[in-house]
Amino acid sequence: MTDVEVRFLSNGDWLNRWDSQARQGLPDAVSLTFATRVGTSEEVFRTIWQIGD
Q1: N or C: which end of the chain has fewer CB within 10 A?
Q2: How many CA atoms lie within 13 A of 38 on its CB side?
Q3: pLDDT tens, position by position, 18-47
Q4: Residue 45: how many CA atoms within 13 Å on its side-chain side?
Q5: If residue 22 lies in a helix (H) or strand (E), which one and from where to where?
């Protein structure tokens, strides 16, 4: 089984949703996490992209 989670950093808070149409602009960063479970074993891959300068 694989779980995928995308989170958005805004003003120090990680958010589950981002609405670019609501004039929020761009988030400070985006986190992407993949968690794969086989039996009792779990593999987790996480990457974070910083947005801006």
Answers
A1: C
A2: 2
A3: 887 777 788 999 999 999 988 888 899 999
A4: 5
A5: none
What token pair was written down for 18?
């981002």
Token output for 8: 């958005």
pTM score: 0.72
* Cα torsion angle, 24, 21, 27, 12, sign: positive
- Coil, strand, or helix at residue 21? helix
Q: Which amino acid is at 22?
A: A
Residue type for 11, please?
Answer: N
Inter-residue contact 31 to 14 (CB < 8 Å): yes
